[in-house]
Write a structure and sequence with these properties.
single chain, about 350 residues, alpha/beta, five-stranded parallel beta sheet, about 20% strand
Length: about 350
């Protein structure tokens, strides 16, 4: 028998995992147990050596008793967990990256870690375009004004009106799965799309109708800039006071990717000076932002609480992607999306006669 722990939460429930695995691997030798982690009702955060995790290490250790496979979105797989889970051989994390797993400890323990790339790409791309439109057309600001009893007809004055996507130039920083979908949507609006991504294939971008440029050129030419890069040591504060000054006066900036990509300190002054015409944010350098955060009182800011990937389709897609890799593992195939392939190489070497 192979025992599987489904560590779900209030977005991707344990039952979604179990149903998806049973559909992909209809075997009689599988047994299941489950726990429900408190996210998103309780914010995620660092736990031990991992980031963006939910729940507790002792709870997870107890739940893993006898489990050979674990599937989760947020459970904290720290070095301590691996030390107390000798039967564990596979963890499937239904996120774009397994940031809640100590990969070094997993590799040392001989545990394969799989993940779910692009699970929320459609949701995040649609949300980013929604943020653009909300910021460019003052949708959130005027909604709040009207609900407060203020009929702001002065927003029809030329200097207060918004911008259209048709004919605009939008710069995308990062052109992975999400950036590519954003570009496709924007091109349908009649937008000129620029992209900066050192790792992208220029020929592929050209085939998509997107112009590849360097970062400075993108910032100088774009009336709207949207972030879609991964956060690494290399991309931390990729946009900062120095290069944000290159933006055209009145430009719109959107960040629905990662808070660390953007230096938030200069943004209030850029908004008040008009260098930034509007700012739309779904992610922050500190989540949630503190009550005294300067951007709460800055003009023309749209803010949402890290919701870009929050759709029912994302939850189902996430469970489907990881269950497919679990099914491959159960039949002796290599999972497609492995964060520590060295473990697979070691297992293959050990299995040789």
């Amino acid at each position: 028998m192979t025992h599987i722990l489904a560590a779900g939460d209030h977005f991707v429930a344990a039952s979604l995992f179990i149903d998806a695995i049973r559909a992909r691997a209809p075997r009689e030798d599988l047994t299941f147990s489950s726990i429900t982690l408190p996210w998103p009702h309780t914010p995620f955060g660092p736990i031990g050596s991992v980031h963006e995790a939910s729940g507790s290490v002792p709870e997870l250790i107890d739940a893993l008793a006898g489990a050979r496979i674990a599937v989760t979105q947020m459970a904290p797989f720290t070095a301590e967990v691996f030390a107390h889970a000798p039967d564990l051989r596979l963890i499937s994390v239904c996120r774009g990256g397994p940031v809640n797993v100590d990969l070094e400890a997993a590799t040392q323990a001989g545990v394969v870690v799989s993940f779910a790339p692009a699970r929320n790409a459609v949701a995040a791309a649609e949300f980013a375009v929604g943020l653009m439109l909300s910021a460019m057309r003052r949708i959130v600001t005027t909604d709040s004004e009207l609900k407060a009893g203020n009929w702001r007809g002065d927003y029809y004055a030329f200097e207060n009106t918004g911008l259209e996507l048709d004919g605009a130039t939008v710069g995308l920083i990062g052109y992975g799965a999400i950036g590519r979908i954003v570009a496709r949507i924007l091109l349908a609006f009649g937008t000129t799309v620029l992209a900066y991504d050192p790792y992208a294939n220029p020929a592929a971008l050209a085939a998509d109708g997107v112009e590849v440029v360097d970062l400075e050129d993108l910032l100088r030419r774009s009336s709207v800039v949207s972030l879609h890069a991964r956060l690494t040591a290399e991309t931390h504060h990729l946009l900062n006071a120095e290069n944000l000054a290159l933006l055209p006066h009145g430009a719109v900036l959107v960040n629905s990717a990662r808070g660390g990509l953007l230096d938030y300190a200069p943004l209030p002054d850029l908004l008040r000076s008009g260098r930034l015409g509007a700012l739309a944010l779904d992610v922050y350098d500190v989540e949630p932002p503190p009550p005294e955060w300067p951007l709460f009182s800055a003009p023309n800011v749209v803010m949402t609480p890290h919701l870009a990937g929050a759709t029912q389709q994302t939850a189902h897609r996430a469970a489907s992607i990881v269950s497919a890799d679990i099914a491959r593992y159960l039949t002796g195939e290599k999972p497609l999306h492995v964060a520590n392939p060295l473990v697979l190489d070691t297992l293959a070497e050990t299995a040789r006669p």
